[in-house]
Amino acid sequence: MKTRAAVLRGGQDPFTVEELTVSEPQAGEVAVRMVAAGMCHTDVLIRELPPEFFMGPQVYGHEGAGVVESVGEGVTHVAPGDHVVLSFNNCGDCPACNQGRFPYCFNFPMANTAGGRPDGTSAFTDTNGDRVGSHYFGQSSFANHTIAAANSVVKVDSSLDLARLGPLGCGVQTGAGTVFNTLGVEAGSSLVVAGAGALGLSAIMAAKVAEAGTIIAIDRHQERLDLATAYGATHVLSGDPVEMTGAIIEATRGGADYAFDATGAAPVVRAVVNGLNNIGTCALAGVGLGELVLDYMTMIGGRTITGVMEGDSTPAEFIPHLAQLNADGVFPFHELIVEFPLDQINEVEAASADGSVVKPVLVF
Ligand SMILES: NC(=O)c1ccc[n+]([C@@H]2O[C@H](COP(=O)([O-])OP(=O)(O)OC[C@H]3O[C@@H](n4cnc5c(N)ncnc54)[C@H](O)[C@@H]3O)[C@@H](O)[C@H]2O)c1
Ligand SMILES: [Zn+2]
Ligand SMILES: [Zn+2]
Fold first, then answer.
1. What is the pLDDT of residues 335-364, one digit of tens each?
2. Dist. CA 214–CA 192, nearest whole Å
3. Residue nearest to atom 11 of ligand 1 (CA)
4. Which CATH number is 81's domain given?
5. Looking at the 3D structure of the chain, how many domains does it have?
6. Which ligand is nearest to the CA of 262?
7. Atom number in ligand 1 closest to CA 284
């Protein structure tokens, strides 16, 4: 089958929208007609990495929402016509997967960022017959038609508005899951959220659902801080990270119970970790490059820092749960979405980078 897809042909090149040929679904795969696909910062992380990280032409996209067209051998949890959200992939049989901790799959790179199937083949070829990488996060959803790994495919209720559900596949799930699953934020507790983008604002909305008492948002864009306030932040901070620690301690009367970083900026992480109380926990989701330096005594006092992937979620359960909270009106992540056609993908990247759009979604 032919499809239109956004292809990245060099780490610093713009996306090009091209006609590709899509293979049939193999065993353990699902053919999906895309309805919408969110763009997450991770789709363009390649821009910040050394050139050797670019593995050749590739279709990105890992927040897909679509309709199942056909299924490969052995796939029984979805059928043609089902509405699905596409999330990260996992191997299903490693020490982490066997404990149900799928985001920490020991084979995560092979399942999500290898540029194709585990056997090295790809689902896409271009008009010259050359290979174009597929299976990004098990899905490569910046395409009208794609092939997804079965473990990436989550069935959702067909009465829901499918076009808004793609971001549940990564960014929204990560922000909300960190609050609900990783940190277990309780009613009345205090939480610092650094980075009021897609992840951070989802975390703030989740903290509101959890009835957190004090919610402190940090960002460098005033309009993002205004959104944070609109969705439940009780305090906002920007400017010099060194001064933020004192402001956090003052606002929480002694230090925050929880912190969530979605900036990936070491000075900000240091400020929020220093702003925790002795038994506080900070979850790091933002992807930072280089070192994070902390004073030894910061940690000896009892604080906890944990990395978090995909909000510690089991997508098959958590995505339908978040979709229902949204339908119930208490988790309005869809208000962060701005829709664009696929051929505006480069404008989407720019709008995301300059902070003017929180959650761009490509519609097909
Ligand atoms: N761990 C995971 O599972 C996971 C999942 C999705 C995304 N991510 C990563 O999380 C991060 C956030 O993703 P997003 O989609 O929310 O991105 P985003 O660009 O929408 O949000 C990031 C926000 O952080 C703010 N920010 C960045 N540096 C800052 C600084 N030094 N001081 C103050 N504010 C700063 C930006 O202004 C922006 O509002 C990215 O690094 C992304 O790659 C991780
Ligand atoms: Zn695994
Ligand atoms: Zn993502």
1. 999 999 999 999 999 998 888 899 999 999
2. 8
3. 286
4. 3.90.180.10
5. 2
6. 1
7. 1
